[in-house]
């Protein structure tokens, strides 16, 4: 119990004094995760909407595949990205291995199926409800995609949050492709694992506290934005 109390006190001291090493890790973590989620959102939302609205040979299989990819093992993704970015890999010429760019790529691969699968379900339900109304305005399936995405922005925000949660909590893939290099590719999750193994529970707890805090702040921000942009209906 004394050990936990000391570790907690050390963690709070690091957070309160804004320890530079702590802030460095937090900043890199936030930058990598937000970049990966942004790319995954740009790809995943239109992809999910297209799969929801268009039927073609193999579309059912594609839906099953996208849903299955939501549970991709992170270490497998890390290994695949490592092979692509290694010197002998097809993208090795760019020298991206053990950089923040490699971690962004790995997280994007993990997050995109989550956003695509959840947005597909949302858009499919919305299309079933408003298809006749949209057709009456002359909209076909393709032209209806931007309207449906905007109308479902609150639900889609939840999908993006799910992707951010996956990205910010990732350990296995980012260790493989990033190497957990101090001052270069060390993020909160990998630093927590490292400092715990070293016995520096104060720093590990401090990072853990900030990781949870960031998740709460991001969720609260998205909730407030959705509340502010949601249509208001006057009482009758």
Give the SSE map:
Elements: H1 2-16, H2 20-53, H3 59-69, H4 74-85, H5 100-136, H6 141-151, H7 153-168, H8 172-178, H9 188-198, H10 201-229
What does this structure look like?
- This protein has 236 residues and is an all-alpha fold.
- The protein has one domain: MetI-like fold, CATH 1.10.3720.10.
- Helices cover 78% and strands 0% of the residues.
- The termini are far apart.
CATH H level, superfamily name: MetI-like
Topology, number of strands: 0
Head-to-tail CA distance between termini: 59 Å
CATH class: Mainly Alpha
The CATH architecture classification is Orthogonal Bundle
The SSE order reads HHHHHHHHHH
Largest sheet: none
Tell me the domain tally: 1
Unreliable segments of 5+ consecutive residues: none
Structural class: mainly alpha
Shape: globular
Tally the helices: what do you get?
A: 10
Rg calc: 21 Å
Strand content: under 5%
Average pLDDT value?
A: 85
CATH topology: MetI-like fold
Helix content: over 70%
Please describe the structure with a list of short key phrases separated by commas or semicolons.
single chain; 236 residues; mainly alpha; MetI-like fold; 10 helices; globular
What is this entry, summarized?
The chain is mainly alpha-helical. It contains ten helices and no strands.
């Amino acid at each position: 119990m004394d050990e936990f109390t000391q570790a907690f006190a050390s963690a709070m001291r690091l957070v309160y004094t804004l320890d530079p090493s702590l802030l460095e890790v937090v900043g890199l973590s936030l930058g990598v995760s937000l970049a990966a989620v942004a790319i995954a959102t740009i790809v995943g939302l239109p992809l999910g909407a297209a799969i929801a609205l268009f039927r073609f040979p193999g579309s059912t299989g594609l839906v099953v595949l996208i849903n299955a990819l939501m549970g991709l093992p992170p270490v497998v993704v890390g290994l695949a990205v490592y092979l692509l970015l290694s010197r002998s890999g097809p993208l090795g010429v760019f020298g991206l291995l053990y950089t923040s760019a490699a971690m962004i790529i790995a997280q994007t691969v993990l997050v995109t199926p989550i956003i695509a699968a959840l947005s597909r379900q949302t858009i499919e339900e919305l299309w079933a409800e408003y298809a006749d109304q949209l057709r009456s305005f002359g909209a076909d399936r393709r032209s209806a995609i931007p309207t449906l995405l905007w109308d479902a922005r609150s639900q889609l925000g939840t999908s993006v949050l799910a992707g951010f949660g996956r990205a910010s909590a990732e350990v296995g893939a980012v260790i493989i492709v990033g190497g957990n290099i101090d001052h270069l590719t060390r993020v909160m999750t990998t630093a927590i694992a490292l400092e715990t193994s070293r016995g520096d529970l104060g720093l590990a707890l401090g990072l853990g506290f900030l990781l949870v805090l960031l998740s709460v702040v991001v969720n609260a921000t998205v909730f407030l934005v959705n509340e502010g942009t949601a249509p208001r209906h006057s009482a009758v």
